[in-house]
Amino acid sequence: MSGVLMNGFQIILRPETFLLIFCGTVLGVVFGAMPGVSASMAVALALPFSYAMEPVIAIAFLTSVYCSSITGGGVTAILFKIPGTPANAPTTFDGYPMAQRGEAGRALGISLVCSALGGLFSAFAMGLLAPQLSAVALKFGPGELFAVSFLGLSVLSCLDSGNIVKTLISGLIGLWMACIGMDPLLGIPRFTWGNDTLVSGIEMIPVMIGMFAVTEVVKQTVKPREMDGLDNNKGVKTRIPSVSEFFRMKWIILRSSVAGTLVGILPGAGATIASFLCYTTEKKISKHPEQFGTGCADGIAAAETSNNAATGGSMVPLLALGIPGGNAAAIMMSALALQGVQMGPLLVRTQPDFLSSVFSSMIVTNILMVVIAIWVAKIFARILSVPYSFLGPAIIMLAAIGSYALKNSTGDIILMAAAGIFGYMLSRQGFSAAALILGLVLGNMCESNLRRAVKMTNGNVLEAFTSPITTPILLVCVVLFIYPLVKAVLISKEERIS
Predict the structure, then answer these.
(1) Which residues contact 376 (CB under 8 A, 6 or more apart)?
(2) Mean residue pLDDT across the chain
(3) Of 97, 94, 100, 74, whose CA–CA distance to 388 is shortest?
(4) What is the 3-state secondary structure of 14-37?
């Protein structure tokens, strides 16, 4: 371990290489803070810069962009309720209410420190356990991956314990929206009603931007609220958590770091699932679950720790097995392939510099990005001093740009606007936009893996889900799903008796 670390620092701390890592971190934070730019898109935008670099330097540079982009996404999630990346969506649940109370600086401080700690934990886990953890990940077939994605869906009943039925309906709407488009196995259009735009499916990013950003602007337009909290955020100064506050959240950070790293290792899972899963888990086991969603520091800590921990986890199968753990890792793999690097199990043994450079760049990036994100947050926070009559249209404009940039399609802007109006209507009726987004995010993964698992067993559903890994995960899903329902029934009975 010490040899890997020393070798990596010898590579990373050369002046020209360190400058590239610094620039990659700046690019990642800025790209991540821009609405609609996912972590994988940030890596793709930075990809051309890596062509002239040595392969070892290139992967270190792209890793710095990847890690810091998720941290940058938390800035706009807290200040404007616009998740910079899909993995930052749970951060809006408590970060934005804190900003409205005038505590944006505290929320940003918790977000940045927890992001760094989650990233550092996953970096050390990657350096120590890459071969062993990848061997476990290889045992995950379609059945196991379905169980993991369904585990994410099982937390729907915990997103809004006060209105479980409407939350579940919202999740089902999201699952239905994920089914729109081409059938993943048969290639047949579904629910398109003859519309060519819908053949490619419902894009998650425009819907997410519409549900969070546009819906909030519509709420402010229809029924303006007092913005005293936002006025207090003028010239916001990021406040790093005190030792006592950090000590109070230590177990949340540790649990989210472990869970985020493990979820990141699973191919296709990624930071978004890790973030939603850890947020709802912490809400479930908290002594004060009613505080989540109202500006609770624990919610920010769980979401931001886990989504950054997933970055290191996703690099494990890439380096140890040549299997990308997510879209961003796949882009890095293509960049190395263009330079003639053969990814696979022998890479770590024959060219250990790759593991060393990624390991060291993640450590350096997770330290640098805190300082850089504080500077970026100051710039974005100045926007809060603008009257909302100007700020609202500016947010809509940024949201439209972020949606259009996904595929350079005006159809995505229309989708964003429709999602914003639909999200406003849902919120008026007490439905959950977060549950809908979760269903949309996990729908494709659930469906494709479920159908593959059943097809591999020639239609035997029981055989598809009785593996030593799948069965325990599904049992946990059942418990997580039923527990809030049973708890609500028991509470109502006690209230009637009393």
Answers:
(1) 29, 30, 33, 72, 75
(2) 77
(3) 100
(4) CHHHHHHHHHHHHHHHHHHHCCCC
